[in-house]
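Batch manifest, entry 17 of 40.
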Amino acid sequence: MAHTDKPKILVVNDDAASLLALTSLLDQWAEESNYTVHAARSGQDALRQVLLHDFAVILLDVNMPGMDGFETAEAIHQRARSADIPIIFVTAFLADEIDRLKAYQRGAADFLFTPVIPQILRAKVSVFVALAMKNEQLKRQAEKLSQRTTELTATNRRLVREMEERRDAERKSHAKDEFLAMLGHELRNPLSAISSASSLIGLPGASSDTVGRARQIIQRQSQHLSRIVDDLLDLSRAMSGKILLARKPVDMAGLVSGCLETFRATGRSAGYHVSVDLAPGWVDGDPTRLEQIVSNLIDNALKYTASGGSIDIQLAEAGAEVVLTVRDSGVGIPAELLPQVFDVFVQGAISIDRSQGGLGIGLSLVRRMVELHGGSVSAHSDGCGKGSTFTIRLPRTEAEPAAPAQQSHGDNSGKPAVLLIEDNEDGREMMAAMLAAHGYPVDQAADGLQGVAAAQARLPALALVDIGLPGIDGYEVARRLRGDPATSAIRLIALTGYGLAEDQRRVLEAGFDQHLVKPVSIEQLLAALAGAPEQAQAPLRDGVRAASAA
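Output type: structure tokens
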């Protein structure tokens, strides 16, 4: 449809002279009144014009052959697009009341009688032209307003989204700040105890009992620091998807029993009423990670249950799943915290109880470890003071066939010579002192090149080699020792803070026999030196092990 900014007038008349007279009159004022004039010789022609153009007003002759003015008006107003066009009927006779009613029923807005008086024609047409211009103006304003409303709505949505994102970022930042502050607190506590105990050992008047207690404090707090570091590393690796599972069939009943025995042996569960109901249940998983899951759940129950409270542990098969439930009678979980109890940082920021210490990331680790095993974890609590229930669901597998009994190798009373290659002076001195106290002859080297030279000169039975050494690293030390026929038979144990599966593979490829992740307890170290994989970590030559910090 052609478009012009000027309003349009349609003159419909079957008489050529009358049509020319009306259009000529209207053309005289068209420029001044800012409109254009169109003509039609019949009702059908008028309908075609209405389909092509929007008209401000139609001057319609009543008496036309074929389709008269009333029929034409009715047809025009039946179309939705042209239903509101005002029509002025032009007639040669004075209409009576019946004709007027008929005309108005067909949509007439006014009447003109011939002969047409030019001033009256101009006045009436001007009213409808002005009205059309005003309507067009209002229409454009409405379109602009609608467009502006759309723009403002989009802007408002964007601002709301940005505000929500900012609030979310601020919440996360605040939670992380609180987590870091809590981490600093948790690190300072054991460090303060270690510092005080170390100073106490050096006092001239310290009794042997006092020194003994101080040593126990140092050992206990060092283990606590180690657990904190392990939790942080595990959380980071779990969140980044870098944990690789060493899967095998695992007897969950035996694993849960082992975890409980550890808590009993350390006195952690003393003073609690612990009930256990363990049905047989096997899963395909990583024993180290599954033990971590169970230990975290039991530790969480103990932490938030006062002494004298009850803890119920159940293991059962449910269809294709093994279900572990840990229920306690402790402080419970507020309703607003329950949906977030497994979230990272959130629990640390709004923890149920800080009196027991810890980083508050144990449940986050539980969820991620369970999900890695293809399972699910859920929490339930009726509210504060009403205890909590945590449920783990893991895919069930078939039991592992019983392995044939192995003969004991017996005790080895011989103490092989050990070469310790470690660049950290304090760590090297303490480890050498511990090994010497247990009867091992120990030689020391402070870097990789010194270590290779010492091994070639003394030919020790074992070498404990740090990976991050100056000069040449531990991998190169192992390669050089394996490449020399004189030192190729030395048993090599990697002693390092690197514990990922990729690090273990590199250790194996470099020629090491075993991989220990720092910090290493004296029991674990002695077992490794004695060649007891059931107590230490299994040699890599028998398969890549699942390190505790992997």
